[in-house]
Every structure is written in C-alpha cells, then in structure tokens.
C-alpha cells in the first residue's frame, strides 16, 4: 500500500523521474503476485491504482541502488539490516529506517500488518501511510538536488 501511495504522491508533487519508489518483502512467499485484494480494494476506493504492484524480495543490492530503505516494523527493520549487511560493510542507519520514523502522529512506530484482521485494519493502515507519505514527499521536496528549479532554470 505504501508503494502505491508514495508513488502517486511523488508523481503528484512533480518528482517523477527524480525519485523512484519501489517496494519489496523480506520473504519470498509472494514473489510476482499482486497485493492482497483487500489492500487493493481499499486503495481503489481511495483513488489509487494498485494494478501494477507485484511482490518482490529484498536483495543485498538494494542499498547500492536506493538512497533510503524503509521498513514497516521492527521485525522487518532487523531483517533489512541483516540482508543489507550481508553485502559487506556497515549499514548506515540514516539510509535504513522505519517508515514510521516519518509518521507525524506516531513517530517511530511500526505499521501494523492488517492481513489477519478485517477491512478496518486496511483502512487504518492506509491512513497511516497517507499521512506518512505526505511528510516524506515534503522532505523530498526540500532536498537541494530535488527542488523544482522553476520555469526559468
């Protein structure tokens, strides 16, 4: 859900082509599959298009090709740090962080997995994702290399 929302927000902010959003899981059980239909339904009901999303698995190379890797909860964060550390070298804690570190309401918290609950869990996760993506996009817009140079530049 976060991939779809953040991609849309990046595009809406005019950062497409300068910011690439991708997502992955730490396990291999859903590789190539679309997202959970309940998550997709909540996204569609809120004017997002989840159709292009397909599951992929985290690889050690992600830190070489991504400036920031965000994990959804503490367990995933530990997995991400373990996998990325296996590529040799230290993992910069500023580049591997919790998605919730950017949450303006519950900073530093994990995003709950709504998989085993009802539809309300997916709505709650979407609310968390939307407010956090707003903060992320605002932060991206402030980065010197990503600022819009304006029509005269």
- Low-confidence runs: none
DSSP summary: helix tally = 5
Q: Main sheet?
A: 2 strands, parallel
Compute the separation of the termini in Å.
Answer: 35 Å
User: What percentage of amino acids are in beta strands?
Assistant: under 5%
Shape type: globular
Q: How much helical structure, as a percent, in the residues?
A: 25-40%
Query: What is the arithmetic mean of pLDDT?
Result: 89
Query: What class do helices, strands and sheet pairing give?
Result: mainly alpha
Rounded radius of gyration (Å)? 16 Å
Strand order of the largest sheet: 1-2
Name the helix and strand elements from N-terminus to C-terminus, one letter apiece: HHHEHEH
Number of DSSP strand runs:
2
Describe the structure.
Helix 4 links the parallel strand 1 and strand 2. Helix 1 runs parallel beside helix 5 and helix 2 packs across helix 5. The chain is globular, with a radius of gyration of 16 Å. The N and C termini lie far apart (35 Å). It has a two-stranded parallel sheet. The chain is built from five helices and two strands. The mean pLDDT is 89. The chain is mainly alpha-helical and 153 residues long. The longest helix is centred in the last third of the chain and has 24 residues.
Summary tags:
mainly alpha; two-stranded parallel sheet; 153 residues; 39% helix; 5 helices
Topology at a glance:
Layout: H1 2-12, H2 37-45, H3 62-65, E1 69-71, H4 74-85, E2 96-98, H5 119-142
Parallel strand pairs: 1-2
Helix pairs in contact: 1-5, 2-5
């Amino acid at each position: 859900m976060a991939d779809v929302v953040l991609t849309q927000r990046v595009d809406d902010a005019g950062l497409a082509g300068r910011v690439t959003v991708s997502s992955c899981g730490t396990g291999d059980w859903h590789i190539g599959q679309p997202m959970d239909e309940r998550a997709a339904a909540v996204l569609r009901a809120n004017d997002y298009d989840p159709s292009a999303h397909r599951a992929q698995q985290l690889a050690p190379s992600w830190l070489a090709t991504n400036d920031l890797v965000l994990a959804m909860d503490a367990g995933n964060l530990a997995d991400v740090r373990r996998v990325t550390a296996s590529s040799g070298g230290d993992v910069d804690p500023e580049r591997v962080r919790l998605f919730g570190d950017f949450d303006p309401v519950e900073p530093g918290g994990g995003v709950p997995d709504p998989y085993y609950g009802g539809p309300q869990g997916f709505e709650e996760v979407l609310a968390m994702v939307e407010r956090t993506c707003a903060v992320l996009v605002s932060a991206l817009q402030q980065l010197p290399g990503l600022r819009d140079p304006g029509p005269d530049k």
